[in-house]
Design goal:
glycoprotein; Uridine Diphospho-n-acetylenolpyruvylglucosamine Reductase, domain 3; single chain; binds 2-acetamido-2-deoxy-beta-D-glucopyranose; 5-stranded antiparallel beta sheet; binds flavin-adenine dinucleotide; FAD-bd_PCMH; Vanillyl-alcohol Oxidase, Chain A, domain 3; Uridine Diphospho-n-acetylenolpyruvylglucosamine Reductase, domain 2
């Protein structure tokens, strides 16, 4: 088919009812068609709002029901590149048409920043670019951004029982957002952040150039390992280093309520979890629940979910010595392979690793997350006060993720993610709800913000730090006006501490006109008049 006929066919999909966005659509598609080597591919990768598949493509990677409503702003166009050159063309054509790009890899952004914007925008949806090539000999892997962590883990396990990768727990998280924003999982104490284990990357910059590590230079390569990809361009792939894991690992989950001395357990956990053997990672979830013993009364339940890179007997002995308050017994722990531990951490009663390949999990609920860092242990009095507040609020929970180990050995400036030595653990505030509508949203956001405010005395100050991958628009947003640098500094210093200014320098060098921007992107320095 001729280029012109195709173009007319595509353009015919535009109905007259949306003339304004329609005109952007028309000139964007025209531009894309001019750029593409095979313009007959265009119908396969471009979705206008009135395309019958638009809604299902948009919804496929929405993971938070808060951004799945009729009033959620929709993109003018969704582009689903199948080749690297499509990304280059889309960047050039979006820039030419003055329309913003939101890049989506796995869609897990807690504030929907990868697929929602208040200004006209297109989504560059990367799910087709998801190849994973494992090289066991070199102990590396080439991973495109649209791959999920589950796919990566599965493909590693197909080739080796003694290799793994230290990334997030949830298998549907996308490589693109996760690695560019830092990333951590059950092996963070042994091997550091996900992005500490990256050796190369490919990015399409604002001029449509495809650059690898050598071509982009060490400053930009530094920035896209923790500074967030979305401020700098569109990342296509990362090359990562695999890490050794034992053939047999050990997992356990132990729960204690206040009646079962949860306060002593949590208090002691703060001293043990960040300092113990780096082969042991003990995440702790703290929630208000209804008491089983005292009928109808509320209590606090602390659950420890752990992975030990070693044998069952050894972890039971270790914790018997270091953490007698936990009372861990042989029957509490279970040995399995590393890949099985990733299944165990996510699914009840499932053992087959194939489940990690499922890109479409059960339907998501409404949710909000926030983050903090604790640098000195909270006293028992402090914990008991906190339990009362959590029981009053009734809903939001806390997840404590211990650092120490390898995290303490990496300098804060090595990568944009600065929260290393000196941080005992990260706190995630977590709330999920099932009722649609603004009232439920207001209530649930309010509860979470109150818990965050109750925690003020216990967490890092000046700045009160936060983790980029736990995106939280409460901590500041940018309007990209004349105060863009000052506005950016508000959230930027919380996410990146002293690394913020280096990120600004990189941004100023690679995208001085701030084409790649969002509510919390890195601002460039203002141009000198
Ligand atoms: C259920 C769940 C579990 C999680 N568990 C963990 C965990 O265990 N550990 C952890 O560290 N984090 C965890 N997270 C947070 C997660 O790491 C971040 O949300 C991460 O950014 C998601 O990546 P994504 O590609 O799925 O997200 P997306 O929503 O696609 O993207 C997130 C951000 O990155 C940008 N981006 C995405 N792809 C690209 C690209 N190719 N180029 C440039 N910019 C890009 C987006 O524009 C957006 O700003 C979890 C999140 C959820 C929802
Ligand atoms: C989005 O809404 C549709 C229609 O109500 C629903 O089928 C889908 O499961 C929802 N997705 C999420 C993530 O809430
Ligand atoms: C709680 O602590 C008390 C006092 O140390 C102890 O006697 C009791 O056995 C503990 N309970 C549990 C469930 O560990
Ligand atoms: C898992 O198995 C246990 C024991 O058979 C059962 O009690 C539980 O309900 C199962 N959980 C799920 C989610 O199927
Ligand atoms: C930004 O600054 C320029 C130059 O000083 C000025 O003309 C413009 O009105 C300002 N814009 C806003 C939104 O304040």
């Amino acid at each position: 088919m001729g280029r012109l006929v195709l173009l007319v066919l595509v353009l015919l999909q535009v109905s007259s009812s949306w003339a304004a966005t329609g005109s952007v659509y028309t000139s964007f598609v025209q531009c894309l068609s001019d750029q593409m080597k095979q313009p007959d591919q265009i119908t396969k990768i471009v979705y206008a709002q009135n395309n019958p598949s638009f809604t299902s493509v948009l919804r496929a990677y929405i993971r938070n029901a808060r951004f799945n409503t009729t009033s959620t702003p929709k993109p003018v166009i969704i582009v689903t590149p199948t080749q690297e050159s499509h990304v280059q063309a889309a960047v050039l054509c979006a820039k030419k048409n003055g329309i913003q790009i939101r890049t989506r890899s796995g869609g897990h952004d807690y504030e929907g920043v990868s697929y929602v914007s208040n200004v006209p925008f297109i989504i560059l949806d990367m799910f087709n670019l998801r190849s994973v090539v494992i090289d066991i000999k070199q102990q590396t892997a080439f991973v495109q951004v649209g791959a999920t962590l589950g796919e990566l883990y599965y493909k590693i396990s197909e080739q080796s029982k003694v290799h793994g990768y230290p990334a997030g727990v949830c298998p549907t998280v996308g490589v693109g957002g996760h690695l560019s924003g830092g990333g951590y999982g059950f092996m963070v104490r042994k091997y550091g952040l996900t992005t500490d284990n990256v050796i190369d990357a490919q990015i399409v910059d604002v001029n449509g150039r495809l650059l690898d590590r050598k071509a982009m230079g060490e400053d930009l390569f530094w920035a896209i390992r923790g500074g967030g990809g979305a401020s700098f361009g569109v990342i296509l792939s990362y090359t990562i280093t695999l890490v050794p894991v034992p053939e047999t690992v050990t997992v356990f989950r132990v729960e204690r309520t206040l009646e079962e001395n949860a306060t002593d357990v949590v208090y002691r956990w703060q001293h043990v979890a960040p300092t113990t053997d780096e082969n042991l990672f003990m995440r702790m979830l703290i929630q208000p629940v209804t008491s089983q013993s005292a009928k109808g009364q509320k209590t606090i339940r602390a659950s420890i979910v752990a992975l030990f890179l070693g044998r069952a007997d050894d972890v039971v002995t270790l914790l018997g010595k270091e953490f007698p308050e936990l009372g861990l017994k042989k029957e509490d722990v279970k040995e399995m392979s590393w890949i099985e531990s990733m299944v165990w951490a996510n699914f009840e009663n499932v053992t087959s690793a194939e489940i990690l390949l499922n890109r479409n999990p059960d339907k998501a609920t409404f949710g909000k997350r926030k983050s903090d860092y604790v640098q000195t242990p909270i006293s028992k009095d402090g914990l008991e006060w906190l339990w009362k507040r959590m029981i009053e609020l009734g809903k939001p929970g806390l997840v404590f993720n211990p650092y120490g180990g390898k995290m303490s050995t990496i300098p804060a400036s090595a990568l944009p993610f600065p929260h290393r030595a000196g941080n005992l653990f990260k706190v995630q505030y977590s709330i999920s709800w099932g009722e649609a509508g603004p009232d439920a949203e207001k209530t649930n956001l309010g509860l979470t913000r109150r818990l965050y405010s109750y925690m003020t005395a216990f967490v890092s100050k000046n700045p009160r730090s936060a983790y980029l991958n736990y995106r939280d628009l409460d901590i500041g947003i940018n309007h990209h006006g004349n105060n863009s640098y000052e506005e950016g500094k508000v959230y930027g210093v919380k996410y990146f501490n002293a690394n913020f200014d280096r990120l600004v320098k990189v941004k100023t060098a690679v995208d001085p006109d701030d084409f790649f921007r969002n509510e919390q992107s890195i601002p460039p320095l203002p141009r000198k008049a």
